[in-house]
Every structure is written in structure tokens, then in C-alpha cells.
Amino acid sequence: MGLIIGVDGGGSGCRVAVADAAGTVLARAEGGPANIATDPEGALRSILACAETAFHQAAGSSARMGEVRAGLGLAGANAAGAAERLTAALPFARCRVETDAMTAARGALGAEDGILAAIGTGSVFVRQQGGQLRQFGGWGIVLGDEGSGASLGRAALRRALRAAEGFVPMTGYLSALIARFGGAEGVIAFSLSARPSEFAQLAPEITASDDPACRAIWAENVSDIAGMLTSLGAPALPVTFAGGLAAACAAALPDIPQRPAKGTSLDGALMLARGL
Description:
Layout: E1 4-9, E2 14-19, E3 25-31, H1 40-59, E4 69-74, H2 82-89, E5 94-99, H3 100-109, E6 114-119, E7 123-129, E8 132-137, H4 149-164, H5 172-180, H6 184-193, H7 196-200, H8 203-208, H9 212-232, E9 239-242, H10 246-252, H11 265-274
Parallel strand pairs: 1-4, 4-5, 6-9
Antiparallel strand pairs: 1-2, 2-3, 6-7, 7-8
Helix pairs in contact: 3-11, 4-5, 4-9
């Protein structure tokens, strides 16, 4: 058939593109979250639903995906066994699964040396030097994701609780945040079951606010990102920011040399599929 499928899946959603052998994209589809470590069953459903929609748009309703090659860049693929379990459940003739950070780096950096800083619901960094890609971070909200939207949301809720107890100054934003969740008890209850994407829903309002607490939280976030980039070789290596917080991070770090992305994580996933 000659078709290839690229899949880009993360905590906020799943994106699929179907292309021909020359790389021309024939169809696209989007769907729900696809983190194969935190919600493997939900991720599989999202991936299959998007892939089937795009594939049938490109090849017709009677075509079968068992003849195509697929490259998948997915959040959670670095968790032990996650990629192997997913691969066994996929219908493609051949496929390769790697982290969404690696496919994002393939698409963003091309063949050039540099650093990809993917800052969205989670955070991960990839350095390309001498043609070699290496991922740093991407450990998830429990152990990492420094500088991410989920970390911002978690930090705001933690600061709100500390303010309620008098350890840090209470501000208008923190007071409103506590009230939104129905008091401190509601904040705690939310934290016990919230997914990273739910924490990250607070990020846009934090980055846009002039509230002193929001400014302090954002400054800490930017400091974490700057420290990571310096350790990975900036400013000698230029940085490409990607993800939902890319623009905010780029604006907050003007002294670090930056380079626009050559392509997207979905482009990187299609590159991965073409290489099979």
C-alpha cells in the first residue's frame, strides 16, 4: 500500500497523520490523551481511534491498517515495558515506539546540533550533538517534569495551602484558588486523584497573572528550566522551545540563543515510520 502513519501522543491529546511514500500528508486526526504509562488503556483507545479515522480518510473505509508502517512518539514510552505492551496491541505491519520527546527532537532539530526543550503538560529535554540524540528528564509529575504546566499547577495549589496556614503571604489569586476548590479540604481531595493534565489547566492563568504569588511561582519555574539548559550546553548549543508553554519560556529566557523548530513531533513520527 505504501502508506505510513505517524502518531504524536501526550498527556493533553493524540495527533495522527497518514502520508504516502513520498511523505505527502493525506489525512490527519486528533483525539484524547495518550500517555502510555499513566493510562495505557486510554492511550491505546485514543491512538486506535485517531489512526483509524485518518487512515480511512486516506485509504478508504475498506482498507486495513495491517499493511502500513507506523512511527509513534508517545509520552510514557520510557516507562519499563510500556512501549512493548503497546506494540503488541497495535494492528500495524511494523511499528516503532519511542518517547514523544525523541520524535519532537527529530522534527524540530533535523540534522543540526541543538537542544529541544519541550515544555507542556510535562517537560523533557533532548540534546542532539554529533548526530546523537539523548533525552533528559521526562520522568513524570511524581519524579520530575520540572518547569512544566503540571508542575506550575501543583506549585500553585501547594502555595495556596501554605498561605492558608500562614507560612507564605495570602494573595488574591491564592484566595480565589482555594475558594474555587471549596476550601483547603477540596484542594487536598483534588490532588489525590488529579492527572497531570488537570494540574496543567492552571498554567495559563498563572503565566498570565500579575499576582505576586503567580510571579514567584513562574520565576521559580523559569529558573529550573534555565538551570537544565545550562547543564545541557546552552548557550553554546541553541535551544528550540516546543509545547504549550514554549512561547512563555522563550520570552522569559531572551539571553539564551534560540532557534525555531524545523518541524513538529508529528513530523518526527513520520520520519520514524519512513525509516522502518
